[in-house]
Amino acid sequence: MNTFYITTPIYYANSLPHLGHLYTMIVADTVARHKRQQGIETFFLTGTDEHGINIERAAERAGRTPQQQADYVVSYYKKMTAAFGLDAAHGGYDIFMRTTEPFHYQGVTEFWRRVAKAKTPRGNDAIYKGHYEGWFCAACAAYKTEDEYVKPDDSAAPPRCLIHETPLDRISEESYFFRLSDYDEALLKLYESRSDFVQPDVRNNEVKSFVSGGLQDLSISRLKSSVSWGIPVPDDPAHTMYVWFDALINYITAIGFGNLEREQAVGFEKFWPGLHLVGKDILRFHAVYWPSFLMAAGVEQPRHVVAHGMWVDSTGRKMSKTLGNTIELDVLERFFSTDAIRYFCLREMVFGQDGRFSYEGLIDRANSDLASGLGNLSSRTLTMIGRYCQGVVPSGKISEEKLLLAKRTGVDTDETTIAGFIEHARDQFLQHFDNFAFSRALEVAWSVVARIDKMISDAKPWDLAKDENQRQTLNAVLYRSAEALRWLCVLLYPVMPQTTQDIYAQLGLSESLRTTNPAQLKWGGLNENTKIGEVKPLFPRMDKAKTLEEIRKGAEPSGVHATEAAVAESEVSKMTTPAPPMQEATEADAAAPVAGVTTFIEIGDFAKVDLRVGEVLSAERLPKSDKLLLMKIDIGEQAPRQVLAGIAEYYEPEKLVGRKVVVVANLKSRKLRGHESQGMVVAASIGEQGRPVIATFTEDVPNGARLK
Ligand code: MSP
Question: Which residues does ligand 1 sit against, CB inside 6 Å?
Answer without folding.
Answer: 9-12, 20-21, 23-24, 49, 247-248, 278-279, 281-282, 310-311, 318-319
